[in-house]
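In response to a reviewer's request, we include the raw inputs and outputs for one of the modeled complexes. The two entities were modeled together in a single run.
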Amino acid sequence: MSAGLVFDIRKFSIHDGPGIRTAVFFKGCPLHCLWCHNPEGIAPFPELLRRPERCVDCGSCRKACPLNLDPARVAGSAACRGCPDFGACAAVCPAEALQLVGRRMSAEEVMGIVLRDRPFYEESGGGVTFTGGEPLAQGEFLLECLAICRAEGIRSAVDTSGWAAEELLLEVGRASDLILYDLKVMDSERHRAATGLANELILSNLRALARQAARGASAGIYLRLPLIPGINDLPGDLEAAAEFAASLEVPLEAYLLPYHDSARGKYRLRGEAYPLGSVSAPAPERMSAAAALFEARGVPVSIGG
Amino acid sequence: MNDRIARLREESFDTRPSFSSERARLTTEFYEEWQGKVSVSVLRAMNFRNLCERKTIYIGPDELIVGERGPRPKAVSSFPELNCHSEEDLRVLDSRPMTSYAVSEEDLRTYREKVIPYWRGRSMRDRAFAEIPQEWKALYEAGLFTEFMEQRAPGHTALDGSIYRTGLAEFKAEIARSRAALDWASDPGALDKDEELAAMAISCDAAIVFARRHAELAEKMAATEPRAARAAELRRIAEVCRRVPERAPRDFWEALQMYWFVHLGTITELNGWDAMSPGHLDQHLAPFYERGLAEGSLDREAAKELLSCFWIKVNNTPAPPKVGVTAAESGTYNDFTNINLGGLGRDGSDASSEVSFLVLEVLDELQLLQPQANVQVSAETPDRLLAAACRVIRRGSGYPSLFNADEVVAAQVGMGKSVEDAREGGTSGCVETGCFGKEAYLLHGYLNVPKILELTLNDGVDPLSGRRLAPPSGAPGGGPAAFSGFEELYAAFERQLAYVVDTKMRVSNYLDRMFARYAPAPFLSVFIGGCIESGKDYYDGGARYNTDYIQCCGLGTVTDSLSAIKKQVFEDRRVAMGELLAALKGDWAGREDLRLLVSNKTPKFGNDDDYADSIAQRVFASLRSAIDGRASPRGGTYHIDLLSTTCHVYFGSVTGATADGRRARAPESDGTSPAQGADRSGPTAVIRSLAKLDIAGTGGSLLNQRFQPAVLAGEEGVRRLSSLVRGYFKLGGHHIQFNVVDTETLRAAQKRPEDYRSLLVRVAGYSDYFVDLDKHHQEEIISRTAQEAF
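The model returned the following structure tokens for the whole complex.
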């Protein structure tokens, strides 16, 4: 049994699959997408977040720091590396000016929280969604969670970038009920520029997953395309995505997600520049035009969700 | 809505509520002549008859359903025999910025010259306050509890279906049979019963006269009405008023008018709390609707128009204003008529019908303050009805609220009612469970549970005034700072709880008997099963079932405070008791670190966290053991309710800082909702926490949830809301209500109230116009956690 690194568990999650869901956020992702909404989910280790505006200078963190530092000023910096009790300062901070992002949890622990909302999943056709970060980056832990879902009869969804060993992805496909599969940029070079990695593995994995699904042995697939002006809506981009979706062996639903910059605040908190600068949200007409491309190729498509 | 309804609605919406001294004047003149000449029951009935014979009656242009409480729409009567307004009270009523009532110079003169001189020292309130013990007054003035019956008569009454099958002529025949069967030879109560039954018969005549006067007025108006169509309507109104309430209604129109006359009668006779309710209106009207459609005498639009006319009539009856200091406790025009929809039939099957949908449409279109409506959702209730209700809820007015019909039935059966009677029951007032038409369930007032903890932590002294209110409760020899552990503290809390409840109950019982003796309600008694058979008044144990409730407030605040003390003082030892007490005394001045510690690092109620929730369960059990099952004077038993209406704001204003991080005088948590902002884990966690309480052992709970409108957008949003409700009810939840409005809208309404006059929001067990709420209530609503989705 392994422990996973989880940075949040959100109940009443409604944007990641049908019904009322609980979203479990895995920490660690091989991609670094410019528009990432959860930058705190990228690094595969716990981090400390400082919110100096909340600090009341009570000194609790200084007393708790095993390295005798002043965490109110340096928490999360290089000085904290190798701290024998990482996060002790955040645990005592009354003002929540220091927050520990990422907690080691067992699958049983995670699922214990998830199972509490069972009546709402049953009434709404919902369940749990494993997201992140990249859940497949913690494959063994993910499979343990999925096994408990199966045993308990809880429907599960996995939100993935598709960057994983094909074998693992297929196993996750067999162990879950729904895969939310991101399709970001069709051109591999530009995919690398926007996410840090090329897309060949992602596309071939998607084909393999669709093939498995076509044999009835795997979860359903929702294809999710964030529509980001200037990144993946250049001439031909969306046509290529729609073509690709239509060419898959199993019918799937596509969801076009209009870009928004609500994560900007998170970057500010992390003291990082917002990587996308001033891209603005696509106009509704742009979204409908994009949707039409999928519809024209027989792919059921929705905007948002 | 059609033109007629639009006009009537606008008139009702725009008319400023006013005060009418007419009832007070007539009652005073009547008492001057008659008091002492007849028994109290007969005196009350004769006074009612005198009012029905002489009060100004009103039929407005375009109206189909007729009759007003006062001489004109939105005029409210006063009840000096219970509590007599002073001239100053009346001037304040007229001039206060919120929920004011226009008071004329003539009203003032009537009060000055006639009403006040007669009733000072004679009104129930004056007499009661002269007798009430000092210990009670000390607790009452400090805000440990309120007392419902010091201002208004016991109420929360809802009717069953009997008035749609039985006219007053038949009720009178039943009364006569009961009188004839009196056993004068061996029943020592025969005289009292005979007088009460005689009073009931007089009351029936009174209501018949009242209706006939409307018939005559309608005929007179028809004779001079130039428009043929309106003249025909007026003649039809006359025909209806000659039929009901004397005889049972024959059609949809007569059924609504029947109820309205009975409603007006009960709120003219007395000012019962939470007015009066028709109970399961859709169930009562469904047979008339179906028959009308089958016969071709009614169509859907006509039925909807009549329902809308009825709705506007209820909206025309603002709540009777209170006197004195308690005006701040519940400032609203809403008189809490609460219409039940859906639910179960006596046989346990789904009782919803097309009329249920019709009522939801009316509710949605009219967007009026009252009546309020709720849907009783059982496992049998079709998804279609719940979805229709959710679509109305999403519009943001807070109507309808939703109740778990299966739990409502179970709660009543648990308190000894038959399952059939329980199914006929439902919700009245805000969230109070009762058996319609067969039960007198009296609410005795709110209990400020966080303040009881405050007394515990201050050795029985109120830290706000420095006055000793209760016996010392500190650790032996050391005062509050010396509690050796959480158990010792909790035991002291339970001792203070027992003291406060005992002190309150003594006076509740006393007032209960005052009403039975001096202000019986013979007209209301006619319609409540058991009263005619027993020959006893509704206020004297005549009903088939008798229950008394004390409404416990601030569960979230007290739970979180106890949780903070348990964890931070006794377990983690991050703060010493003395240090915490000093911080509370100083309202956290200079101790923001400590306030943040208890706020942020303490498990809190409403997060599905067993640490906090088990404390809530324990407080709940303590409240029950202090109150539940104790005998009341009417032969019933006391139980607890967990609702606060708006009292959590008043109670908060008289309570110092609490250990959960709440600042002095800030509102306490409302109903059974988590403390404002304490619920950080989403609505499903709130619901799971609530579901851990054995709500079926109470007379009601209240859970407010506020949602960002975007969460409930589209049909998917309706499904989401429906499943949240179904999930809660499956877990045994009792009640849930929603505000679907974002903070920006509420802030804008504060800045530009004139643009938001019709913005209805859910306050407590009812909705109110946001701009009519005082600043504290507005802020309290804004501070409720707005559930977002993730």
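As requested, we also summarize the result in words. Residues 47-99 of chain A form a domain with the Alpha-Beta Plaits fold (CATH 3.30.70.20). Residues 48 and 76 of chain A are 5 Å apart (CA to CA).
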